[in-house]
Design a protein that fits this description.
two-stranded antiparallel sheet; 23% strand; 5 strands
């Protein structure tokens, strides 16, 4: 499968892997996020954190408290997880 933003995705994945290699397992999600924020800045990638993401219900915009962890280059949505195992609810997120 060809990704639409394959080069950018690979760059972000590499940065995330570097964060995990440097930090190791067992840290809180927010700690990994701050480390990834640092790596994205260092790589000169623009990003936004905790972007509000309302839903549209019957043509009405509803702010339901859902936010995107990171939006990179206005193209890639990053949902960070710090868990022992990915379960179905994580896949849905």
């Amino acid at each position: 499968m060809k990704l639409v933003f394959e080069e950018l995705t690979e760059k972000i994945n590499g940065l995330a892997i570097n964060v995990h290699k440097e930090s190791g397992p067992g840290l809180l999600e927010n700690t990994y996020k701050q480390c990834l924020d640092y790596e994205l800045q260092k790589a000169n990638l623009s990003f936004q954190s905790e972007v509000n993401c309302p839903i549209i219900y019957k043509k009405i915009k509803i702010s339901c408290g859902f936010s995107i962890d990171l939006l990179v280059e206005d193209k890639i949505i990053i949902e960070l997880k710090s868990v022992d195992k990915i379960i179905p609810i994580h896949e849905e997120q």
